[in-house]
Amino acid sequence: MSSLSIFNQLEISHYIYLSTVLFCIGLFGVLFRRNAIIILMCIELMLNAVNLLFVAFSSYMGDADGQIFVFFIMVVAAAEAAVGLAILVLVYRNTRKTDVSFLDNLKG
Amino acid sequence: MLEWIIVLPLLGFLINGVFGSIIPKPIAGWLGTAFVFGSFVVTCFLFSDLLSALPAKGAVYLKVFTFLNVGNFHVDIAFQFDRLSAIMALIITGIGTLIHAYSISYMSDDDSLYKFFSFLNLFIFSMLVLVLGSNFVMMFFGWEGVGLCSYLLIGFWFKNVSFGKAARKAFVMNRIGDLGLLMGLFLIYQNFGSFEYTEVFAKFGRLEVGTGICTAIALLLFIGAMGKSAQIPLYTWLPDAMAGPTPVSALIHAATMVTAGIYLVVRCEAIYALAPFAREVILWIGLATSLMAALIGLKQNDIKKVLAYSTVSQLGFMFIALGCGAYTAALFHVITHAFFKALLFLGAGSVIHGMHHEQDIRQMGGLRKKMPITYATFLIGTLAITGFPMLSGFFSKDEIFTAILAQNTGVFVLGLLSASITVFYTFRMFFVTFHGNYRNQHHSYEKIAESPLLMTLPLLILAVLSLIGGAVNFPNYMGEGISKGLYHLLSFDGGGSFSPILILPEQSFEISHVKEWILFALTPLFLFIFLVARKKYVVKAAVPEADADQVGFGKTLANKFYVDEAYNRSFVEPIELVSDTLTEYVDEKAFKSSFDGIGRINQYVASLLSRFQNGNIEYYLVYMVIGLCLLLAFNLF
Predict the structure, then answer these.
(1) Residues B525 and B420: beta-carbon distance below 8 Å
(2) Residues B426 and B514 occupy one common structural domain
(3) By the number of CB atoms within 10 A of the CB, which of B376, B431, B453, B585 ranks highest?
């Protein structure tokens, strides 16, 4: 209880506001930025916003399930970052650009 | 053993059909012949077994598997080798072997020889299924199978459009008959609950003579027989079927397939015995067909067409016999006719072969010196068909006339007229072809040569059979012991253990002495007609006039009574008109435009939607977010 007490000093609503703001920053970053690296970083931001919310609720409910979930998300995020960056490197090697708006070969 | 009769031709069909293109030509032909010959040998063995086992056992049955078993409806793939089917199988495989061997030489120039032999083997297979099946469904399978093979073989030289049309005509006319047959089978099942011959005929035995259902079934089955056996009004396909190679005409359109109708009626004797009205119809239709075809035959100049009309006419005689209730006489004539008509057709094939595919007898003449074997065998065939004493045709026709005379003198006079015409036009064809002077301008007389041994050997064998074929069923005056063999075989009663093929005892056709003298007077009459024909075509060396010079009744005959034209006008043209109208207005205008419209709407919608798919990741991400938001919204509200 003592180690989690620092979280309990704030209202749960503050965590919700913070993670919502973080998630929206990430979301709008993904939608409106063109640089692939920044898009990738914004995805990380969204994931971590969710992580924060998980941990906050876990502490609030006194249930460790949320925190376990966070570990899984971290693992997936790490893998995603590795694969995503690798793809980016290859894209850059082929096009000399990291701008996603040029990647429109899938046009129907 | 029984299965081998049927399996061997099927094997031949499969081997030539599948591997034919890589088998060398002569081997393909010999292979096809060997399989049919094997089938013939097995049939002979089984037939002798059957004869030796007769007092105890009347038939060999073989059930292969159950074809259908739905509720009460039960159909087996099963075969029955009894005396009637044995006789038919002997004709089919025996004559089939000879014609197969003949074809090896006759068709040797053809590129798709293997196809020809695989079709011929398939035909033999189907025909055997027809006669050996133990129920009506098996018979129907065979019936349709031979129809298909007939179509394939008439149209064998399908690159000639008119030959293809002849094949189509044969097929369509047969379908009309098949419809009647099929309806007859439905009625049989509806009323007797089975398709097995033995069960159905046993139930028929309990009915009264002249019951409506018997007459209906008998008439419907006869419509099927009309189509297959080329009787009025469905006979016009048979002369056109001469478009096929000559061995096909000999095998299918003379010796075997066209006699399927007679087989059907003899097989269903139990039904026809109870339907006197149907027999009356058969009698008159047979008579009309026989007379009409004989008259048309008088003015035909294509050697195969003459033979075709003569086949129609002879089939008419067989139906006259059936109409009189003389089933043995009809089957006897089937046998002898198979011998001499196959002989005549193969002889005609030999002539056509020698003349480089010339079929018009006006372009022939004087061939007897160049083709002695063909000439001699053709003469025997001609004598046999015209009923020269002691030849096969004499005995079988004599028996038919006895039966007619015992029943109806009017029919006898008309039948006699038809038989007299037969004598005249057959000898006309014979004399114009083989006697007189050579008249062809295109091929020199010196180059004409006798056909090779492979073709003349079947001719010789068939000539011998045409000479002695009457022995199958000699009349009583030939002496006890050797006479009436076929009749005794068919009406042999196993005394409870099995029933005779002809269940009701055939009326004995007792005729008075005066009438017997009339029958004896027939031979001089036919001889007189022969002399008239000889005087006209040999002594005066008359040549049939050109098509354009025909006048009066002769012109009507040369144009086959305009029956084809009438059929075209009344059936073909209206149907074509309707289908042309439907094509133009319904298909082209209504359907095509509406289907095109549906296509255009789809294309327009697709062109709108495809704008969303612009390949840009940013847009895809926006779609994804919108989608997720919608999912969320659905979950919340």
Answers:
(1) yes
(2) yes
(3) B431
Domain boundaries, chain A: 5-100
Residues B120 and B142 in one domain: no
Q: Residues of A with CB below 8 A from B621's CB?
A: 30-31
Work out how many domains chain B is built from and give that number: 3
B606: contact with A, CB 8 A cutoff: no
Q: Rg for chain B (alpha carbons), in Å?
A: 29
Indicate whether B294 and B439 sit together in one domain. yes
Residue B606 sits in which domain range?
564-636
Across the interface, of B613, B615, B622, the residue whose CB is closest to A31 is B622
Which one-letter amino acid corresponds to residue A66?
A: G
Same domain, B79 and B151: no
**Residue B140 and residue B128 share a domain:** no
Predicted-complex ipTM score: 0.79
Instruction: List the single residue in A with minimal CA-CA distance to B618.
Output: A31
CATH architecture of the domain covering A5-100: Orthogonal Bundle (1.10)
Q: Give the tens place of pLDDT for each residue, B317-345.
A: 999 999 988 888 899 999 999 999 999 99
Spell out, as residue ranges, where chain B has pLDDT lower than 70.
Answer: 55, 478-482, 493-511
Q: Which of B521, B536, B558 is the last residue of a domain?
A: B558
DSSP 8-state secondary structure symbol assigned to residue B484: S
Instruction: Report pLDDT digits (tens) over A82-101.
Output: 999 999 999 899 888 888 87
- pLDDT the model gives residue B140: 94
pTM of the model: 0.79
Residues of A in contact with B618 (CB under 8 A): 31, 34, 100-101
pLDDT score for B304: 92
Q: Last residue of some domain: B134, B151, B182? A: B134
Statement to judge: residues B99 and B143 lie in one domain: no
Whether residues B478 and B448 share a domain: the answer is: yes
The three-class DSSP label of residue B324 is coil
Q: Do A107 and B615 touch (CB under 8 A)?
A: yes
Which residue in the set B610, B614, B625 is minimally distant from A27, CB to CB? B625
Q: What is the pLDDT of residue A45?
A: 94
Question: Between A and B, how many CB-CB pairs are < 8 A?
Answer: 32
| Cα B16–chain centre separation | 23
Q: Is B617 on the interface with A (CB under 8 A)?
A: yes
Looking at the structure, do residues B237 and B299 belong to the same domain, yes or no?
yes
Provide, as residue numbers in chain B, all residues whose Cβ is less than 8 Å from the Cβ of A103: 615-617
- Looking at residue B385, its pLDDT comes to 92
* Closest alpha carbon to B262 in B337, B357, B186, B348: B337
